[in-house]
Structures are given as C-alpha cells and as structure tokens.
What we know:
The chain has helices spanning 2-6, 11-15, 22-29, 40-46, 65-74, 85-96, 136-146, 166-175, 185-194, 208-214, 222-231, 233-240, 242-260, and strands at 55-59, 77-82, 104-108, 121-127, 147-160, 198-203, 263-271. It has 272 residues and is α/β, with parallel strands linked by helices. It has a domain at 40-157 and 176-207 and 263-271: Rossmann fold.
Amino acid sequence: MGDDFTTPLTVEQMYGDWGIEWEDAVAMTDVSLNPKPWTSIYDTFSTLGVEEGDYVLDIGGRDAAQALDLAERFGCRVLSVDPVQANIDLGTEGIAGHQDGHLVENKLGTINDIPAPNDAFEAIFSRDMMGHVEDLEGAFGECRRVLKRGGGMVIHDVFATSLLEPKESARLSADLAMAPGRLDGDLFERTAEEAGFTIETIDRVASEWLENLLEGENGEKRLLLAARLNRDRDRFVEAMGVVPYRVVQGNNLWTIYRMIGKLQDRVYVIWA
C-alpha cells in the first residue's frame, strides 16, 4: 500500500477512467463517520473507577470548567491547578456560581510543583497541557508523588505525525509556547514509562473530536480565518498586536493540522 500512495500519478491516471464518477467519489466522503465529541474523554476517565468523595487533580485546569465537569459527573472532590493567575481568577468566579462548586478548589501551581501532599489523589486528569511543560521527567515524577499507589491518570495531548514539516513544528512551538520536544509522542511515552507509569491504553483520537465540532451547527471556520489572517497580515497585526496575531493564527494552524493529519490527538490511560 505504501507504493500506492508514494508513486507519482500520471496525467492519464488523474484524468482517466477511475471506474467511479467524480461526484460519486466526493459523495462517499460527505457522510458522517459519527465522530465522538471531546467530552468522551470523561467516559475514558470513568474507567479509572473514580467514585463519589474521591479526590481528583485536574492539572493545567485553566478556568476550572473541567474540574466542575468532573465534580458534577462523578461526585468527586477536585483540585484544579493552573500556573496563570488570570485563569485562577476566572475559575474562582465559575466555582462560586456552580451547583457543585463546593466540591472544587483551584490553586496557583504547576505540574512540576503541585500544591498538594504526597499520595493525595485517587486520580489525575490532564487535557491538552503537557505541551507547555519543559521538564517532562520532573512533571511525571511530581504526578507520581501526589498520586496514590495504584492510582491512574488520563492524559490528552497532541503530537506530530510524519506529515508535519520541521519548519511547521518550529513555528507552532514558538507561537503557542510549546516546550522543545513536546510534539514527540515516542519521547512522551518513554518518559512516562521511565517515571514508573504503565501505559494501559492509547486512544488515537486523531481528527474525530474536530469532526464532531465541524458537523455541528457552529462548525469550526479555522481554515477561513487562517486564510484571512495570512492574506491581510499587516492590517491584522496593526489592529491587534503581534502577540495576539501569533497566538490566534497559531491556534488556527494547530486545529487545521489536527484535521488533516499533521498532528494527532491521543488520550492515554496510565497507572502508577
């Protein structure tokens, strides 16, 4: 099959008789594959056996919205930890106005310095944040410190595939504050295992969550937005500033690359 996809096509092959009409070939792709939403990660988290009253860490919890979801779904107590004060402030507001806010606390901290004692948590939840971590070995070691023996982690992150060019990787990493090497899935898995974790499952979600968003009423328009930002870059930079432009366009490309297979979403279940 490799040769089928790497051997250049001839003009005759491209415009000749395929044995199927163009419209029929395109129509085959315009049928939903019934993609699951990103919230399916909570179904994966349920496999850790978290019960009402258990203590869970949401590391890199941003505005504590995920921590509140976990508390609502599982009845567990949750500590949401994030390194950005603005996220802590937003989280505090959200917690105060939520029916399960009494189960959630948020604190300033990092995955390399978690504000919790040893063996504090039954489980750890981590969604799309490991890419910012410079000391990955130390991060996994700190997670082991605060996780009870036999406890589990669910980790979602995004990794480069062979389709991502080095210059694309470098640009994304620079614009989205990614630590060097964090797009390397093999390195990520090896570091987790060297820290003493056992990888039980790897769900290569790929583009599925994004397909779910695209098929909704308010589907993503990242390709259109990226094209506009690229075509009229100087005006957008003048209007919004360099840093916002880089982050907005970086996020557009991050999403597009996940859609077309240059990046791959994965969800890991690992055990201490």
